[in-house]
């Protein structure tokens, strides 16, 4: 059943196989769960804001940035499924390290 919450799932399940001659996107990998988490954050905190003040801790921010970085693997997978050349910026981002919070004591 099509609902607003599973709109992208529906589009992915319907259109990727049509556009790629039957190939499907593997939704069991980490990038898919990261995509769903980020979409939930986008829907709740960016598009449909629930509170007046929206601040987060550095550690949570960095985890979210790393999830965005992991979406590069989803882009790579889609390029492979569609038989398209993967742009250099996507390849470079795929090999970049995860972002870490470094705390220094200034005494």
Describe the secondary structure blueprint for this structure:
Blueprint: H1 7-19, H2 30-47, H3 58-81, H4 88-94
Main sheet summary: none
Range of helix content: 55-70%
Through-space gap between termini: 60 Å
Total domain units: 1
Tell me the number of strands: 0
Rg of Cα set: 17 Å
Overall 3D form? flat
Average pLDDT across residues? 79
User: What structural class results from the helix and strand content?
Assistant: mainly alpha
Low-confidence stretches: none
Task: Give me the strand/helix succession.
Answer: HHHH
Percent of residues in β-strands: under 5%
Question: DSSP helix count?
Answer: 4
Describe this structure in a few short sentences:
This protein has 107 residues and is mostly helical.
Describe the overall structure.
- The chain is mostly helical and 107 residues long.
- The protein has one domain (25-107).
- 58% of the residues lie in helices and 0% in strands.
- It has 4 helices and no strands.
- The chain has helices at residues 7-19, 30-47, 58-81, 88-94.
- α2 (30-47) packs across α3 and α3 (58-81) packs across α4 (88-94).
- The longest helix is centred in the middle third of the chain and has 24 residues, at 58-81.
- The radius of gyration is 17 Å and the shape is flat.
- The N and C termini lie far apart (60 Å).
List key phrases describing it.
about 110 residues, mainly alpha, 4 helices, about 60% helix, flat
